Amino acid sequence: MKKGYPRFFLLPGLILLVAIIIFPLLFTIRVTFSNWNVSQSGLNFIGGENWSEMARDTRYWGSLLRLFYLSFLTVAIQYALGFAIALFAWRGIAARRFFRVLWLIPMMTTPSLMAIIWRSIFTEDIGALNGILSRVGLDPVNWLTESGPANVAITIAEVWQWTPFMFLILLAGLLSLPKEPFMAAAIDGASAWKTFARVTFPMMAPISIGAIMIRLIDASKIFDSVFTMTRGGPGNATETPAAYIFQRSLQDFQIAYGSTLALMYLILAILTLTIIGKVFARLSKPRGI
Amino acid sequence: MYKVLKATFITIWSLFVLFPIMWAITTSFKPESAVVNGATFIPFLEFQPSLIGWKAILPGPDSLTNLLTPTLNSFIVTAGATAVSLIFGSLAAYGLSRFTYGWKNYSNADIIFFFVSQRIMPPVVLAIPFFLLLKELKLLDTHLGLILVLTSGLMPIVVWLMVDFFNALPREIDEMAMLEGCNPIQAFFRTILPLSKPGLTVAGMFCVIFGWNDIFFALTLTATKVLTLPVAVIALNGTVTPYWILAASTVFSIIPLVGLAFVIERFLSRGNLGGAVR
């Protein structure tokens, strides 16, 4: 076959993507060696000062650590809940179609705007949740101004927003599974639990991995909920790297230092996600039945 | 026992899903007194519904803000970014599904990873360089500028979904077309594209959802002319607008997409979605 045809398909998209992304990336790398800030704009060269300042920036490393557990925790909960409701909506319940629509709705809503609604729910004096708590006779909780509850509030908002994404991918996967293995299991008289553990779950492994990876990628960018609900507070108790970098580079206007943090964050995200992807790929290799 | 557990779980989850939406809808109809004096829940019983929130965001004498132009902007930008991503993304995905590309040690899997890895890019990394780039190209605060930037986040999703989708389509289909004298390009447009509607629809829906809901790029790269709907509402939020107006504008801006949930469900129930995510 002539060489031109394969290129016709791949190159336009590849070139467009590279064209959009290449300048911002190179620019960011260059800017980390300057001290572009609110009083000094332009590209000078100051060597690795930003990088050594970053190494000492405990607030930054703290935010990365927080992101690490926040993203793994929320994605794990989303996966478990998403799989459970996908199983119900697959064949388990009456009025499936109604519940399918209902359970998809959060995914359609704008995260940054729902974060405003979540803030109005968690607001301590006039919020919905403390209103309910006081009606059933419980003490109000400082949802947004105390470190533990604030993290719970963010987790709840993230789980609400993104479980439907897991649900959709997993349900679509379940609906596309072949019927024969299930018939074989039924003939063997396997219990519902055994069928799930030996047939459904293994067959869903590739789809599960795809869904988890995409969710982890997006969870590594958690920003909307944090920024709108708590602004990273109380103190820095809920601050993620995206929120911290936003503050340093777009509010304090320390563009060079913000870019350094951002570049490091990108490198770490790509490394971590690549490793996770490889581990998943190894785990999902068929091991015989 | 199992049945009771299942029913409880389903009820609790459904209430959890509905709660923030019901809260947003009721809050949008609350008068000031029903918000600032503590939480109220049940209309007519606990508060008299009022239209002040809605009057503030819809055209009329009491209007505080204009959400109609932002709505139109959101439609244009979302549709544009979705179309560009679908066209370029599905062409690339088809190539990656059918041909072997090689450049030094890089294989198809690496190229696919390159596409998908663009989604790892946090918008906050790109905001400032994109700002300078678009300023240089005179694309700041234009539809085209925002469409191009959004494409960098949406095309990875299209490639990810469509490679798997094309892999699931039997190769015999395009080989048959080529035996009959089509070149690969004609084979793609005449035989594969018509079969790809389910996959393209799903990929397109993801693009619409993520494009419509983007806030970061729209916030940093547009100023006045191309204000999108979420940014317009966030701008209200920034000026300490009361919750009843915020709730009304939130409900207003999520209505267009909630309709999509019904479309997706129809696809699921007809079994069309299955092949698209494998």
How would you characterize this protein structure?
The complex is a heterodimer of chains A (289) and B (278). With 289 residues, chain A is mainly α. Chain A has a single domain, classed as MetI-like fold. In chain A, 74% of the residues lie in helices and 0% in strands. Chain A is globular and about 75 Å long. Chain B is mostly helical. Chain B has two domains: 2-50, no CATH class; 72-228, MetI-like (MetI-like fold), CATH 1.10.3720. Chain B is built from 13 helices and no strands. The longest helix of chain B has 31 residues, at 68-98.
Portion of residues in beta strands of chain A equals under 5%
Based on the coordinates given, report the CATH architecture of the largest domain in chain B.
Orthogonal Bundle
Number of helices, counting only DSSP H or I runs of 4 residues or more of chain A: 13
Q: What's the CATH topology label of chain A?
A: MetI-like fold
User: What integer is the average pLDDT of chain A?
Assistant: 86
Summarize the structure.
Chain A is mainly α and 289 residues long.
Set down the secondary structure blueprint.
The complex is a heterodimer of chains A (289) and B (278).
Chain A lengths: L3 H28 L17 H7 L2 H35 L3 H13 L2 H12 L5 H8 L11 H29 L4 H8 L4 H12 L1 H15 L4 H6 L11 H11 L3 H29 L6
Chain B lengths: L1 H27 L3 H5 L15 H6 L10 H31 L9 H10 L5 H14 L6 H26 L2 H9 L4 H12 L1 H17 L2 H6 L7 H10 L4 H27 L9
